[in-house]
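Quick one - inputs below.
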Amino acid sequence: MPYVKAQKSKAYFKRFQVKFKRRREGKTDYRARNRLINQDKNKYNTPKYRFVARFTNKDIVAQIVHASISGDIVLAAAYAHELPRYGLEVGLTNYAAAYCVGLLLVRRTLKQLEMDADYEGNVEATGEDFTVEPAETRRPFRALLDVGLVKTTTGNRVFGVLKGALDGGIDIPHSEKRFAGFNKDSKQLDPEVHRKYIYGGHVAAYMRTLMEDEPEKYQSHFSEFIKRGIEPDNVEGMYQKVHAAIRANPEAKKLDKAPPKEHKRYNPKKLSYEERKAKLIDRLKALNSAAGADNDSDEED
Amino acid sequence: MPAGHGVRSRTRDSFSRPFRKKGYIPLTTYLRTYKIGDFVDVKVNGAVHKGMPHKFYHGRTGRVWNVTKRAIGVEVNKQVGNRIIRKRIHVRVEHVQPSRCAEEFKMRKVKNDQLKAEAKANGEIISTKRQPEGPKPGFMVEGATLETVTPIPYDVVNDLKGGY
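Output:
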């Protein structure tokens, strides 16, 4: 093998500074996090809430979080996999489902904080830009949108979650520029288009096109929809029912199983001084006996 | 060329970030809260250029007298000539750390209150004052053997090694 010059010497590793762990994992954008968390010092311990929206391949996670030195504290969370409880079983990561998750999370937090009577939000989703009006008794709950590492293009699903939250009744500073249906040329949001997306109109339209042009693809792609008998025309009605169910009972379901008595360990436990000494003695004994056995066998040979 | 006495002169090492700790600042610095009357250490963070104190204050400890949106007002003692002036500076939170100088005092306060409460419950009088360390108690020297040392007669030949 030809001589290959070593690229990374010992000196390289000695000087290497690792990035923060979550940056190495590619999960946290610290520049954005810094700006979201930083609270004015003359507001002392007032929490600054972030409205976190994250998408995985099959799920949506929405949380209301505030930061503390020992770790972030989650006030309330909502997942797309909870939506079957409210009657939505398919299409759990589309724009309409995102809207439902946002709505669910907000109704849940407002109920937790006992503000849900004051702040009904926008009951009938029209797709227009809706901002909460302050009620008489308390000011609206305020959170800041945290999208994570997503590219914030117009019509992104994180803004579906945002719209659900706004219609639920909390105050999140935003602009309508990135909602689905915003027209770049006229610089205006078309509420009709946005409403279509909120009620899964874009999904229904695709279903109709596939049914006409490529029936086999329709069968394979929308098999779960067909299994549950959801037709393109039913889609809007289904989502309206889900919205109503969410508003009726947003409470989180308590887990039935009890928390484990002992916390599960994910890394090996550190040994104490005596344990390490004992381990060393055992190892030396084993080595000595093995060496002794080898000597014996050599002598025999 | 002359030496130059700019604001940040002679700060090459003191303002530089420590080895392998360059780049992003951990977010705890921003999450800490400071109240008026707290003691803080001023330690400049070279990565943040805004709200830096003058190099004199690097390593000083002072009291907080003001809290603003992103910075803290610290009152530091500075000797000017034959007197000490209480200087009030404003410093961004990245250049400030909570000081542990008053920690021992606070813990002692809490413990003393506890002891006094217990003594009151028992009805006895105690003094919680700190006592300075006294002289060590007397002790007998153990395991001493006597060795008598006498001078040896002067030996001319041996002592003048190679010099004669």
